[in-house]
Structures are given as C-alpha cells and as structure tokens.
Amino acid sequence: MINVTVTSRPTIRKVAERAGVSRMTVSRVLGDRNDLVSEETRRRVLDVVRELEYVPVAQPMMQSRKVETRIIGLVFDLAPIEGPFGIAIFIGLRESAKKYDYDLLTLVRDAPEWMNGREELQFLNRQCDGVIFISPAQRYKTIETLSQHNIPVVCCHTNDVPAQIPCVLLDNFGAMYQMTQHLIENGHTNIMHVGSCMIRPDFAEREAGYRKAMLDAGLQPVVYNLDYRNEVSLRGFLESMERHNTTAFNCVSDAQAFCVWDVMMVQGMRVPQDISITGMDNIRKEVVSRGLTTIVTPLEESGTQAFGMMMELMDKGYGSVEDVTLPVQLVKRTSVRNIS
Fold first, then answer.
1. pTM, entire model
2. Pairing with 253, which of 7, 84, 215, 279 sits 20 to 30 Å away (CA)?
C-alpha cells in the first residue's frame, strides 16, 4: 500500500479557540445549522476554518493518520452514474471491487460553503483509501492536491490531469478517424461533424480524429456544435448543412446522432435514403432499433481496468502505473447509404 505521512491537522477544538466560540457552535456552522448561529459568528468561524484549512472528520477516524477503510470513492462528473454511460462503467467497477474485497462509495454531495473553492478538502478526510474520477470536469486542482497528499487517484476517460495520475482512456481519435473513413469509403465527401456545445476532452479528441481523416482524404472538414434546443443554433445547423451540400453527419455521440436524426425527420428527410448518420458509444437501446452505425466503446472494461489500476497504484505508488488506452470497434448498421 502507499505509505502516507501526514502532519497533524487542526482540530475542531483549535478552530473553536481561534474563533472564540464553543465546539458546538463550530459544528452548527459546518452543519449548516445557521438558524442557531448569528451571521457575524458564522462568518468568523468560516474565516478560521479556511485559515486553518480544517477538514471535519467523523469519529472514529483521525485526521492525523491514515486508516485503511477498504473503500474506494467514486466521482461521476460528465458521465453521470444514472445514465447508460455511467451505469456500464459502474458495473465494471462493482465486479472488480467484489473481486478485491472492497466497497465502493459514490461521492455526490456538492462542496459546502466553508470550503469556498477548496473542493479538494472533501477528499482529505480519509474516508476512502483512494478515489476514481469518471470523466472528471474541472477537477485538475483537486486531483493535483490529492496526489500531493499521496492519496491514490485514477481517472477514466480524460487525460486532462497531472502527469503522474494514471488514466483509463478510450481511443476517441482513432474511433472517429475510422468512422470518417467508413463514410468516405461509401462515397461521401461532404461530411459534417456534429459536435456538442459541452466542452469535453474526449469530444475534442473525436473531432480531431474526424478532421485528420478528412484532411488525409483531401476533403474539407466541416464542424458544427449543435444545441438542438436552441432555435438559433438549430437554424444555423440547417443552413450550414444546405450550404455544404451535406450527405452525411459524423456525430460526436449516439445521443447527438439521435438528435440530428429527429431534426432530419422534422425536415422530411429519411435515413439513410436522403442523409447518412453515424454516432459513437453504442450504449442506447435505439442503436439497434434505428440501425445506427456507431462505435462500440468498452465501458464496462474501462471500469474494470480503472479498479485494477487503483490496486496497483496503492501497492506501488505514483510513477509506477502507466495509462491504458482501450480499443474500440466499428459496428456497421443501416444508417449509412453507399452513394458511390
């Protein structure tokens, strides 16, 4: 296991003494029992908490030492656990946790006010032996701080993390390169990549794969980040489609592909007779019923790999565990028409 040396941390007694209040008052402030505390006192306590970087920890755990819990924390950001993407990953994590005799703790609470931008403190109370972040969003500082405290961290589906953090990645670039080639082989030259307004590293990699495939074929890339719920965005999308004589949409995800599909139906266009559409992920039931050509991503395997990497990291420490990139597979269905 990783050896952790932690200096003695401030206690609730020290916070109370510095703020000139009782420990009960500190507990009330941190527990959002503000109806029992004046605003002036609440602010004074919060100032001391931030100054001392105090982290409340439930007994019997101690802030000053590492206690093995046999619990791994999970943080789902851009891939929410209630969605098909998150559920598939969780299955892999769950089976591996059972194999290694660990419990999983899904961390869902927002950072309380007293943390004031220091959300990394949520993870410094030693309630978990390590933390796995699934598609983390704006977590760089948090992850960096955890690694500095020698808390084991593994990330899934992003490499936008400090260099020492091991990651499980999908071949997003290769997937979209392969899909674009498939459309080109079927005679399509006016191919639009339909991205998302959501800023995500994996989506950026997918767009890059599309662009490279188009340029390698001597074709002009056309990218439109569609928000189908926004009338201005939707109107711009349809205008761009007409202006570029688009015959095929290369969509960043299955979800976006089905949005485009529905928009085309409203416009009186048929798939694939009038327009071809592709996606990526293969995790929605509609992919089969609609016949969407897409990319299978090994999501359950990514959960399995992430947990295995966590076990290796806890055993060997940072710098000893390399990133893993999982292969993807093109699944051809009926949403692509050959126009050669």
1. 0.77
2. 215
